[in-house]
Batch of 4 targets.
Target 1
Amino acid sequence: MEDIEQVEARLRNIRSITPILSALRTIALGGWRVALARLNAVRAYQEQLTDILYLILPRLSGTRLHGQPTKATVARRGLLVIGSERGLCGLFTTSVVAVAEAELARWRAMGIEGELMVLGERARREFRRRNLFPVWEARLPVTGVPSICLAAELVAKTLPRFNRGELEAVAVAYNHYLGPARYESRVLELLPLVWPHRAVRRPPWPPPIIDTDPYSLYQQITEQLVLIAFFRVLLESAAAEQSARFQLMEGASQNSHRLIDELTLAYHMARQQRITMEMLDLAVGAGLVGQSQTQWSEMSSTDMPADL
C-alpha cells in the first residue's frame, strides 16, 4: 500500500485539475452546439439559393455561365487544409494532414503542381515537421467557431485566381462531421463549383417575376454558393473538432472522478493502518501486549484440557 503522504499528494493533484477538465468540456460542448446550429442555418440558406438558381437557369441559354473559367494556363491546383488551433482532440490534425499529403502526392504523379494553404497552428506545425511549407496560412479561433469573414477571405484569395485560369481547381482537406466524436478525413473539390443537388419539386404558382438581369443575378448567386461552400467545410471541421474534444474531456472527467474515489478509499485505508500501528506501538510501550502473551501462556499450560 502506498504511503499516506503519497496518496494525499496524488489526490490533491487530481482534485486541482478536475475544474480545468470541466471547463474544457463545457467550452467544447458550447462550440459543438454553435457549429451545428450555424451548419443547419447555412444548409437552409443554400437550399433557398438553389431554388432561385434553378428558376433563372432557363433564362440563361446561350450565355457563358459564371464560375466556369477559360482553360487554366498552368497545371496547378490549390489545396486548403483545415486543421486545429490547439490539441486535446486526438488524431484530428494528424489524420487530415496525412490525407492532404497523399492528395498532393497524387497530384505530383499526374504532373500537377499543388499550392498548399493551411488553417490552424497544429496543422502548420505538422506540415513543417514533414518538410512541407504552405504558401498561405492563417489561424483559427481558439475557443469559438470560424466566422463567415474567414470564409470570405478564403474566397477572395482563390476565386479570382480560379476565374483568371491561374488555378484549374481548388480542393479542401478537412474532417467531415459524421456524428458525436465521429468524423472522416476527406478531400472535397470546391472549385469548379458543383451545384447543390435539388430534389424535383412542383413549379411555384404563380410563376415568379424576375426584373433583375438574369445573368447578374446568376453571378451573385454563384458567388454566394461558393462562399457557402467554403463556410460549410469550416463549420463541418469545427463541429468534428469540438465533438471529438468534448468526448475526450468527458472521458477524462469521468476518469478523474473515478481516481478521486479510488484514492480517497486508499487514503482512508492508509490512515486507518497508521492509526492501528500507532495504537499497537502504544500498547507495546505500556507493556499490554507482553502481559497478554504471558497470561495466554499460563492459561494454555494449566487451564486447557490435556487432549488439546
Target 2
Amino acid sequence: GLASFADSYPWQLSGGMQRRVAICRALVFNPPILLLDEPFGALDAMTRDYMNIELMRIWQQYRKTVILITHSIAEAVLLSDRVAVMSPAPGRILEIIAIDLPRPRALEVTSTPRFGELAGQIRAFFSAEMFLSAGAKGP
C-alpha cells in the first residue's frame, strides 16, 4: 500500500508507513521468526488498530512465528495465540495464557465477553504483582 511513496525518504513517511516499511524490511529475508518489540507503541490509536489488522493479515498470509513485546493488554490478546505475562524487573514469566479466540480475527472481537475475560485475566497478574511489590515496601 505504499507504491505512491516509493520515491519518498523515510522522514517523509508517517509513523504508520514507517512501521509497515520496517515489517517489510524484516520479511524480505524470509525469516522463520519475526521479532517485534513495541512495534506500534508510538502510533495513534487509529493507526495502531490499522497496523494490528495489517499484522494479522501478514501473519495469515506468511504464517511466520511472531514474538511480539507489548505493554498493551488489548493488543496482546488481539494478536496472540499465547501471552507470556512477565513481572516487573527482574523480568520473569509469571504465566503463559492461551488465547482461544477464533482466527481470523477482526477488531470486533475486542468487544466480546471472551476478549474481556482474557484481558481481565492478564490484568489481574499486574494488579497482584504491583500489590505485592507495594506491600513489600510497606504502606
Target 3
Amino acid sequence: MTNSQISPAAAARELLARRKARVDLHAFIQYINPDYIVSEFSRTVCNELMQFIDDVNNGKRPIIVFGAPPQNGKSTIVSRYFPAFLHGINSNLSIAGVSYNSDLAEDMGRDVQRIINSDEYKRLFPSSMLGQKKKGVASKQNSTAYEIGEKGTYRGIGVGGGLVGRKVDIGIIDDPIKNSQEALSETVKAGIWSWYLTAFLSRLSKNSGHIIMETRWAIDDLSGKVLENDPQTRHLVFKAISDDGKALVPELHPIEKLEKTRATVGVYFWEALYQQNPMPPGGLFFNESDLLENGLPVSYPANCQQIITVLDTAVKTGKKNDSTAVIHCAFIQYPEPRLIILDWDAVQIEGGSLITWLPSVIDRSIELGVQCKARHGSSIWIEDRASGSILLQQCANDGIPANAIPEIFTAKMGKSERAIAASPYVFSGKVRFSEHAYDKIVVLKDQPKNHLLNQIVNFRIGIDNGADDLLDTAMYAILLTLKEDH
C-alpha cells in the first residue's frame, strides 16, 4: 500500500505512534518491533531508563544496579534498544557496552546497529544514521564500534578491555562475570573491581551515567561492591517469582514453569539466577533427598553404558591426612543420561603402595561391569595431582589402562566450582545412590559412618569443608559423564 492509499485515520495513528516513539523508550521498542511482548516488567524498566536519561541530563551522574532473571528481556531492552534510542535523541553521546568478553559485546553492538539501520528507526530519527561522511570521510563502523552524528560513538568491549583516551557518557555493563565458577574466583572478582575503578570510572564524562546488570552469583560481586560503596546507587531487583507468589512475566514464563524450574535447579542457582539473591558462603548445598528416589535408594541397574571408577589419591596415612577415595558409578545413557552410585571406599594408604592396591579397585570395577551388564566395560579415572600423577605414570609403565581426569575439572576448578557445576544434575534427579552405596558403613579415622553421603550433604559453598576426598570423586564422576561440553 502506498502513502496515497493510507486512510486519514491510519495516517493519524502512524503520526501519533512516531511522536510517542521519539520521546518514550517503551513506545520506541514497540514501534521498532510490533511483535514485542510488553509487560509490567518492560514498562517498569523503560520508565526507570527514562528517569535515568533525565538524571544524566541534569548532571546527577546516576548509577543503576539492575538484576532480573534470564530470558525476560533485560539485555534486549538495556543493551540493544536503549543505546539505539539514546543515539536517536542525542546522536552525540558516547556509549560503551561492556560484557564478560568481547564476543558477547560484539553481538550486542551488531544488534544495536541493526536497529539503527532498520526502516522503522530511519522514520523516527532520520538524522541519526550510520555511515554518514564527516568532512568528506566516512564514519567508522565495524562489528564492535560505530560513529554517529557529529561526535557520537558506540563501542563494545569485554571486561578488562581498554577505554584509554575515550570518554564515556553512558556505560552499560551487562554480565561482567560469565558463570558461577568465575564468580567464586577471588582473582576474577578482584580483577573486575580493579578494572571498574581504574579503567571504567576514569573514562566517565562530567555528565554521565552507567548501568550494571549481572546475575548475582556472589554477595561481593561488582554489583555488591558498588552498592556497598555508593549509597546513592539505584538498585532495581526483579524476582522471577515475587514475594506474593506471582510470575514476573507470565506471558513468557508462567508460574507453573517457574515452580518446575525452582525444583530442578536447586536453591543456589534459583536464588542467584532467578531471585537475584546470592547465597553467602557457608550455607548447606546438597540435600540427602536430592540423591534418592521417592526418599529411597535405588537398585543396581539391569544394564548400563559403562562403569566409571574415579580415584582421588592421598600421599600419606594418618588421622590428620586425607584418605584415598574411590567411587564406582554406573553411567546410563538411555532414555536419558543419569548416574547410579554403586559403591565407594576410603582407605588410609601410603602413596608408594597405591600401585599394589589399584588392581583390587580395577577388579571391583570389572565385577560391577559384569553385574550391571556394562556395554562398554569399565574405565578408571585418577586425579592427576601429587600421588595421583605418580600412580598414572606407574599405570602407563605397567600397561594398566587408566585415564587422567581432565584438567578443566582439576586445575581449573576448585571444590566449590566443581560442586556448583555438578549440582544441576543432582537437583534434576540424574544422580542416585544405590542401596548398597547408601547402606555402606566404613570405619575411617575411628569414625564408622557413610563417609560419602556425609561429605556430600555437609558440603558448604566457599569454606573449608574438612574431609572432602569422597565428595571430589562424586563430583568428578558426575562431570565426566553428565556434563556434555567438557
Target 4
Amino acid sequence: MNKIQMVDLYGQYHKIKSEVDQAISNVIEKSAFINGFEVKNFEAQLAKYLGTNFCIGCASGTDALQIAYMALGLKPGDEIILPSFTYIATAEAAALLGLVPIFADSEPSTFNIDPKDIESKISAKTKAIVPVHLFGQCANMEEILNIARKHQLYVIEDTAQALGSSYTFSTGKEAQAGTMGDIGITSFFPSKNLGCFGDGGALFTKSGALAEKIRMIANHGQKQKYYHDIIGVNSRLDTLQAAILQVKLQKLDSYLEARRKAAAFYDQALGNIAEIEIPKRVSKHVFHQYTIKVEANKRDLLKEHLKAKEIPSMIYYPLPIHLQKAFTTKATKENSLPIAENLSKSVLSLPMHTELEEAQLEFITQTIKDYFN
C-alpha cells in the first residue's frame, strides 16, 4: 500500500503528465505568457461548464474576492455578512477595502452559513451577503437569495471549495455553485478540486456590465491600454496556469466522481460509529474535504491515533474568524457564535483526493474503528 497523503497532487499529475507537459510546452513555444490564447479559451470553457455567461480569470481566489467587492461598488464602512467558520480570506479581502465583516453562525449539520442568523445581522449598513460553499457543498441558496431580494442586498458566492457542486431549488431548477448570486468566485489553488500548479482564481457573472467592470478592475482599471477609467489592481491568471487548467477541466467530472466514491466508502464504514457524525448532504456534494464531527473530548485523541499510524488528518478550522486576533474587537467578543465555536472543537477532515486507493480507505477506516472499539 502506498503512503497515505492528505492530498496526492503528484499522483494526479502523473496520470495526465503527457497532456499537461504538452500544454505547458505549447505556451512556452508561443511565449504569450500574459493573456495568451489559453486564458481566453479556458475562461470560455469554464463558463460553459458552469452554465453562466462570463468567466474572468485572476491571480488568486483572494484577489477574486477583493475584485468582486470592488466591482459591486462597496465602500469603506459598508457591512457584509459572511460565515465565521471558514478560511480567513473571505473576511480578509473585505477588511483590506475598509468593509466591515459581520459574522454569522453556521448550520450544525452542513457547516454552512445559517440563513436564520443572516437575517438577524442585517442593518442599515448591510450591502451584501457572502455565503461560502464549505467543504464542497452549497449553502442554502434559496433562503439566502430570498433574504437578499427582501433587503436589496448583493450576493457574492465564495465557491473556492465547491466548484462543480450544484444546488436544487424547491422548483426543481438546478444551478451550479457560483452562478446563483450577483458574482461567484473560485480559487485554483493546487489542492482544490480544479487546481493549477500555483495560484489562480476566477470570477463568474451573468451580467455583461459586471463582467466588463471586473475585467477592467483586474487589469489596472483599463479597457484600452494606458487609459485608466477606474482604480483597479493587477491580477491575472497567467497563461501557463490556464493551459494546465484546460487539461484538468476536461477531467473534472471524473475527479468529482472519484471523490464521491471515496466519500461513499467512508460513509459505509463510519456511519454506525456513535461518536462520529458523517457529512450530511443537502446539495450535490463534491467533497473538497470529507469532514466528520467527533465528540469534542475525543477529536484530538483520534487525530493523534491516526498520526501514530501515519494517517494524515486536518482540522479545518481550529479557530473561527470572529475569534482570530486580527478580527477580535469588543463587538466580535460579544457576538457569540456557538455553532461555529463548537464546530472548531469537533470537526476532523480525513484524507480526500482523486487518487485514494481502496486499500488505503480500508486502512483509514479500520484504524478509526479500532480507536472507538
